[in-house]
Amino acid sequence: MTARVLGLLGILGFLVTWEVAALSGAVSRTYLPTASTTLLRLGRELTTPDFWVTLGDTVITWSAGLGIAVVAAIALGTVVGLVPFLQKATHSSVEFLRPIPSVAIIPLAVLVAGLSREAALMVVVYAPFWQVFVQVLHGVADVDPVAQDTARSYGLGRLDRLRHLVLPTALPYVITGFRLAASVALVLTITAELVIGNPGLGRQIELYRSAPDAPGLYALVLVTGGLGIVVNLATRMVERRLLRWHPSVRREEAL
Amino acid sequence: MSRRRRGVLAAGAALLALGLAACTADAQDPPAETGEDGNRAVTIGALSISETAPLWAAVDAGVFAEHGLDVTVQPIQGGAQAMPALINGEVDLTIGQPFGVLRATEQGLPVGIIAGYAESYAEGDDVNSVVAGADTDITRPADLAGAKVAVNSLGAAGDLTIRAAVEQDGGDPDAIEFVEVAFPDAAAQLEAGNIDAAWVPEPFVSMIVGAGGTRVVDPYQAVIPGLPTLVVQATTQTVEQDPELVAAVREALADAFTWAEENDDAVRQTLVDNLELPEEAAANLPLPHFTTTVDQEVIQALADLAVEHEYFQEAPDVDAILVE
Amino acid sequence: MRRIRLRPVLGALRTLGYAAGLPALALLAWALATDRSASLYFPPPATIADAFVETWFGPAFTEDVLPSLGRFAAGVLLSMVIGIVAGTAIGTTRWLRDLLEPMLEFFRAVPPVVLVPVLMLMLGVGDTMRIAVIVSGCVWPVLLNTVEGVRGVDTVLTETSRSYRVRGGLSLRYVVLPAASPQIMAGIRLCLSIGLILMVISEMFASSSGLGYRIVYFQRSFMIAQMWSGIVLLGLVGVAVAGLYGIAERRVLHWYHGMREVARG
After folding, report:
1. CA atoms within 13 A on the CB side of B45
2. Rounded mean pLDDT of chain B?
3. Which pLDDT belongs to residue C131?
4. C215 touching A, CB under 8 A?
5. B85: buried, middle or exposed (CB in 10 Å: 19+, 13-18, 0-12)?
6. Interface contact flag, C110 A107, Cβ < 8 Å
7. A92: exposed, middle or buried (Cβ count in 10 Å: 0-12, 13-18, 19+)
8. What is the pLDDT of residues A140-156, one digit of tens each?
9. End-to-end alpha-carbon separation of chain B, Å?
10. Could you give the angle at which helices C177-202 and C66-92 cross, rounded to 10 degrees?
11. Measured between alpha carbons, how far is A255 from C216 in angstroms, rounded to an integer?
12. ipTM of predicted assembly, 2 dp
């Protein structure tokens, strides 16, 4: 209860600081609108159908990118993680490819795919893929060797072991990877829209910036933050759902 | 599966497995698509800037349809990014800066100029200008030496002509400190004192001058008067295999410009519709001179200048670039 | 005698084979694929290697690569300091946490790239702005992980240390921070990879030098092999950063890894 009140106070404090900073004129009002103007503008944006189409574009690119990354990473990660030879053989390549910042491939994506959603997807898929992939590897590696041996000695087949041993062990890792990947993918989606210019919130921000329409720009910045929070809350909820049985979640709920 | 999608998959494979991805730029054969009314479908890539207004207006008014062309104007983000779209066959033609074509041919990309589109003014106020902030003492090109000057994208016609203009005026072009700032951000950066001068097109020139800025030099006009700001570009493949299309586009575009001159209101209305400009701003916005002719000497001068200032290692073959 | 000598040699060869096998195969496949059809966007590896040497072993190293790395290091270090200090304060103070949590969640969710125009206005177009862009994205994982880590410190541990009158700074230094360090290190790891991304993004705006700027410039100028060489260089930088992090992590968390091994038996 008090936590919620304090939280609201924090938000209020931020808005007041913003309002005062903008009114002080340290930065010209043309470029930094007041909090109140921006919020009013946000209210107006929310009532236009165009806004929802733009938001939809972003959500589609984001979910498509995230989906491709997660499915590919789980499939490849499980195979590589279960086969020691593959794991050793791919280790150096993975360690090289993983840290390449995905924005570095924006130029390449633009050359290959033009100014399209496909180009944006190349950028959006890249980083989250590695994030989940590495988590899957960790997860598969975490399987208790004793349990593994026990299962084998009881005659459990490969598929059964995958289903009853590997999957439950790896799931928390995969979910953590997924949660991280979801927010990274969102940041990349908006960045790609801004730099590449495929339809979505990022492009609209760039358009407002060029207009120049500062209230519109900041209203959309607020939207991107809000969208990020929604994504974060949603993935946390998924995490809780899928890992109800897991000690880390159970402990959290007990507290 | 589209060529583009195949490209994406191939590139994805390359990035994931570091290999096996060379099959993207495979043979391209733009199919002669026709619309419902038997018109030839043409996609033209164009920047979402005020210069595109006559194209938007003329397409809406049906000028291109009279020439058997069903034109779609595809918005593109940046001049250099249009080139891949052109080569991928995503668009049939693009409207972009002549410097981009020179640069692309220098790197061996198969593109050429099939017609002019817009050019700067040889006299009077030009359509782009270097403007200095209100707090600076910069009044003439030579003063730009030692100053922080913003251009939208380095290594192109903007900084090239500014260097030449400064040199003409007796300044040291190497002393200019160039920095990339997007056109819309330039005014704010000038006001904040982060940069000393900026090269911007209209309406930003008027905005900055209105806020107390100084018009220092119109670099295109000062160095290569009448330099085209935009030209119509196509791949050499289109040029060779589809001369009818090239001819039809040229004629239609010439008609479009004549029509646009007589229908200024319709042209300016597209600025309101497409760029969300306020009506008043749209009515007063200075536009460049629209023409389909390209002066070979002017393009040659640009190429020579680029070689002189070591932007290019060797002179591009302007004769080959300009399609007869 | 001979057998004893042969074994380590074979082992080393095998390690080398595993490390270099797939990259070599991939390069070979790439070379073969690009050899037959001259692709515009995928130049043969030899061309990229040439471009790499030509582009980066020269003035570009001091003009573009070093400044980029400097800004990256400054941004990441600042993020770590701010994140750990602020995170510890917020994590140990209940009311502060309640007050700031919603705002922190919001700021973390804002893509740093949309803040570039604002930061440009306030901080100019120089290095300060670029470092600020890096910090604006990197600070969150460190900060939030520190908050979580500090908050999650075993209550028994804190109670015990309190009963032994270990308080304030001492308790922070010897009890709270070490206990939170696995979480903090995880945050730093994220911070590093986000930092590299932001280093590149910050150079895509208002720039005239830097690794990110150069790569975009090459793309715009259709210098494809050079562009690829830049991407490869970024990959190498990423590997180096990950390697350094690995060393640091082993140092900081050696007790933790040891504990886990014991726990696993």
Report:
1. 27
2. 83
3. 93
4. yes
5. buried
6. no
7. middle
8. 877 777 777 787 777 77
9. 35
10. 140
11. 50
12. 0.76
C-alpha to C-alpha distances, C59 to B200, C62, C69, nearest whole angstrom: 30, 6, 15
In whole angstroms, how far apart are CA A110 and each of A66, A106, B128, C120? 20, 6, 28, 25
Question: If you average pLDDT over residues C1-22, what whole number do you get?
Answer: 74
Bridge partners of residue B116, in order along the sequence:
B231
Whether chain C has a CB inside 8 Å of the CB on A234: the answer is no
Q: Does domain B34-120+227-321 have CATH number 2.60.40.10?
A: no
DSSP codes, A209-235: HHTT-HHHHHHHHHHHHHHHHHHHHHH
The domain spans of chain B are 34-120+227-321, 128-223
Report pLDDT digits (tens) over B268-302: 998 888 877 788 888 888 888 999 988 888 999 99
Buried b (16+ CB within 10 A) or exposed e, B249-277: bbbbbbbbbebbeebeebbbbbbbebbeb
Beta bridge partners of B130: B199, B217
Within a domain: A92: yes
Whole-number Cα distances in Å, C232 to C59, C61, C211, C229: 18, 14, 11, 5
Residue among B53, B111, B119 at smallest CA distance from B275: B53
CATH of B128-223, one of 3.90.226.10, 3.30.1330.130, 3.40.50.1110, 3.40.190.10: 3.40.190.10
- The shortest C-alpha distance from A8 to chain C (Å) reads 7
Residues 267-296 of B with CB under 8 A from A: 276
Q: Among A163-167, B218-222, C21-25, C85-89, whose mean pLDDT is lowest? A: A163-167
- Residues in CB range of A227: below 8 A, 6 or more apart: A55, A58, A186, A201, C109
B188 touches chain C (CB under 8 A): yes
**How far from B283 is each of A134, B174, B287, CA to CA, in Å?**
57, 40, 10
Neighbours of chain C (3+ CB pairs under 8 A): A, B
Residue C44 touches chain A, beta carbons under 8 Å: no
Interchain proximity C121–A107, CB inside 8 Å: no
Residue for token digits 């990473």? Answer: A73
Residues ≥6 apart with Cβ < 8 Å to A220: A45, A201, A204, A205, A208, C114
